[in-house]
Prior knowledge:
Blueprint: E1 2-7, E2 11-14, H1 15-19, H2 24-27, E3 38-41, E4 44-50, E5 53-57, H3 67-71, H4 81-87, E6 97-99, H5 105-108, E7 112-114, E8 121-123, E9 129-133, H6 134-141, H7 153-161, E10 165-168, E11 175-176, E12 184-188, E13 195-202, E14 205-209, H8 232-249, E15 252-254, E16 263-269, E17 272-279, H9 281-285
Parallel strand pairs: 5-6, 6-9, 9-10, 14-15
Antiparallel strand pairs: 1-4, 2-3, 4-5, 7-8, 11-12, 12-13, 13-14, 15-16, 16-17
Amino acid sequence: xxxxxxxxxxxxxxxxxxxxxxxKSIWHKTNPSDANNMIDIAxxxxxxxxxNKLILIDxxxxxxxxxxxxxxxxxxxxxxxEKSLKNYGFHPNDITDVFLTHLHFDHCGGSIxxxxxxxxxxxxxxxxxxxxxxxxxQWATKPxxxxxxxxxxxxxxxxxxxxxxxxxxxxxxxxLKNSELGFDIFFADGHTDKQMIPMIQYKNKTICFxxxxxxxxxxxxxxxxxxxxxxxLLSLDEKELFLNLAxxxxxxxxxxxxxxxxxxxVQHTEKGVRLKEIFTVSEIFN
Length: 286
């Protein structure tokens, strides 16, 4: 098995929204903001090369939205999904499976692109299955008013229309063991219903793709929950459960949204689970 970080593009989000009720005087120490109160956010996806499968976890925002739309998110840097794949010698048509932790636009937008004459949409990965789960699909396609702006139909419905959509099984508890794609999945409902956190066995390590369960290192303290979460008290409990597991088992946490820290481990302290070590992807994947 080989793992590759795929940087699909960086953007910015409001620091207050990213930290909910936590005061700026506290969160700015780990996530400094600019004059507009915006903090740096990465869109760091993960590519798994395993036997005859090439599995991409999340796909970033994509590029099909309007300039007005992207203007809200202050895009920065030169990374793109296709450019990052090319850096490792891959093409979008090589991807066999696209695993989507959830269907918010910044996690799945790159899955679907305009067709050649921009009259409709087509899969960006023509030979891939798109993986979600049935409960989250229903949640996303019939969105509540709070999340409606994050579930964009042009990102979601074409996956089904093209016949490439598949659903993972659902767990009896929090974790689905050895899913159809060969890794365990931790399910979390606090951010959005049935968000999926892949847990990949790699060279005697467990690599956990944290998605929005732990966006950045600054979100490690339990009360540091995003204002975007639909059920923040549930997020707090799910974070506590997962971070305790991570500290007990020395999981390596791959941070999708932390622009400055790629992989971390955590440890138990008197203040709860806190940062242990920070790693670059090259230190862990090579």
